[in-house]
Design goal:
alpha/beta, seven-stranded mixed sheet, two-stranded antiparallel ribbon, 9 strands, about 40% helix, about 15% strand, elongated
Length: about 300
């Protein structure tokens, strides 16, 4: 049975993040605390599920960029099924996103795709598959009722949930699959970590990664049109002087913060500053040329 939400309507969900594994392939390192692009892996995952109604992390407490609820499976180290059960007990939404804490390229759009697939197919769960077509049950959206039903059945067994592999749980569910080699990429080894760090420094990714990292570091939850700001910086650099670019964009941010502070305020301040930069350039005959701020050189003739 499919969900009845209108197309494009955000699906309410809670998130359970499993972050208490032993990281044996990393020599027991604190995997959730390893950094990619200046941010810990767990903070990158928490940023991806920031619009969850509740976010529960199953692990020992640690500093995180945003507040979450913490819980531990009993006994600690009892495995992923027991951890999922402990986290699910603190959620209330009909849909639950279940994530590992080592996904450097997870994005909010990924979770929206999973939730949409869950609603469209009527399955018990929608999970990502990796580059080799393997199921990734810890990058998935599930119907909470289906999880609770199967967890209760497993818990009634002779050994309970301790030590059970996830396939014992997911094998009883009706699943739909969403291929996504990038979002499903996890950091299980040091080579994985090196590859993740290299990828975000590639030309096509570095700017978005840097902006996301700065917003997290400063505690800013604001989506703005970076293209507008880059155009403004270019106009200020070319029409006035190179140092005008960073100073102008700083002043635009300051002006927006003094006003309503939202994306619209940033766009309006940027529009005004860009118009001023163009007037400045036209007045001094510098439009479309780069200069150092001194007087224009006479034409060579």
């Amino acid at each position: 049975m499919t969900d009845n939400a209108a197309p494009g309507t955000p699906v309410p969900y809670d998130a359970v993040v499993l972050a208490g594994g032993a990281a044996r392939r990393l020599g027991g390192a604190d995997k959730p605390g390893l950094r990619v692009g200046g941010r810990t892996l767990i903070d990158r995952v928490l940023a991806a599920c920031a619009d969850a109604g509740k976010t529960v992390v199953v692990a020992d407490r640690r500093p995180t960029a945003r507040p979450v609820r913490w819980v531990r499976e009993e006994p600690a180290g009892a495995g992923p099924v027991a951890a999922l059960d402990a986290g699910l007990r603190l959620t209330t939404a009909d849909h639950t996103v279940v994530l590992s804490a080592d996904l450097p390229f997870l994005q909010p759009a990924t979770l929206r795709r999973l939730l949409a697939a869950l609603g469209e197919t009527g399955a018990d769960g929608a999970l990502l598959t990796d580059a080799d077509g393997r199921d990734q049950p810890l990058v998935a959206a599930y119907r909470a009722a289906a999880l609770r039903r199967e967890l209760a059945a497993l818990a009634a067994g002779p050994d309970g949930l301790t030590g059970l592999p996830l396939r014992r749980l997911t094998g009883a569910l009706r699943l739909t699959r969403v291929p996504d080699p990038l979002a499903s990429f996890d950091c299980d080894t040091w080579d994985d970590l090196v590859n993740a760090r290299a990828r975000i420094r590639e030309h096509g990714h570095v700017l978005d990664e840097w902006i996301s990292a700065v917003k997290d570091e400063l505690g800013i939850d604001l989506d703005v049109d970076t293209g507008v700001l880059l155009d403004l910086a270019r106009d200020a650099a070319h029409g006035v002087a190179r140092p005008a670019a960073p100073l102008t964009t700083f002043l635009v941010g300051y002006a927006a913060a003094r006003g309503e502070g939202g994306p619209e305020a940033v766009a309006e301040a940027a529009r005004k500053a860009a118009a001023l930069a163009l007037r400045w350039a036209e007045e001094n005959g510098k439009r479309g040329t780069e200069n150092s701020g001194g007087p224009s050189a006479p034409d060579a003739g």
